[in-house]
Amino acid sequence: MESIQENKDGFFAKVKATYQAKAENIATNRDKLRELLHKVSSKITEVSETPAVKESKTQVEVVFRMLKAYYNKEYNGISSRTLGLLVLALLYFVLPVDFIPDFIPVVGYIDDITVILAVFKSLSSDIEKFLEWERTKL
User: Does residue 57 have a pLDDT over 50?
Assistant: First the structure.
């Protein structure tokens, strides 16, 4: 019987295979990246009280701030791999129809949050560097 972690890893691999090319396209186009950031900002506001999102709102916001600082040329500590994964996570978050469509009550955002948390975990050292940069910036 597969463990929960193996299921999450397999799910994340499927998401990467399906959406990575689109994420890379967005990551290399400033206009598309700006548009993605705008969509994420709107969606965070729209769904912030949804239980699945509420529990992971901090991680979503950190990923959003990291990309926004990169976009605004304030933070340049992002590798192309990190950039691609951050865009992948936020792209999946804003897509209304993904592996579990967002309009399905309760479970609609669980897959979105799973992807964000997987990216957050895989980029933990990059995220820590960003958070340290943020702390010193203030």
Answer: yes
